[in-house]
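We modelled the chain as a single entity of 133 amino acids. Its sequence is:
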Amino acid sequence: MPSNRSVNSFRRQGRSALSLTVAALFGLLSAMPAAHAENIDLLMSGLFKQGPTYIGMTSVDRDDIPESANYERKYLIVDFRYQEMPDDGRLQASINTICMAMIRDRELMQRLSNQGYDMVSVAFDRQSQYDCL
């Protein structure tokens, strides 16, 4: 049976190793290039090398809807254009890429939430919008 001294020494070494591991992980994460765009325009315009072109965003405020309603009052539309509309599978993949880029950017999501946005939509033309969140 190990002595108390050796058990305590093992515990100190375990804590010390855990602290070093946590510190190394935190350092590694903070040294990684930031995936967070300071500006939604930068995030959206850098998504596709080939595919839809980001043309801008529009904020929509629906003051005509009461705050107590179950409907979105303020939402953001990120607008893209294809030179030629793709098939449904490729369109769906583009929507997924755009939505996931925004969802993964926690800082962006927090800023949008703080600014009162209830929803974000993607548009590729003036007729249709696809809701992300």
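As a brief sanity check on the tokenised model: Residues 4-31 form the longest helix (28 residues). The chain is about 45% helix and 20% strand.
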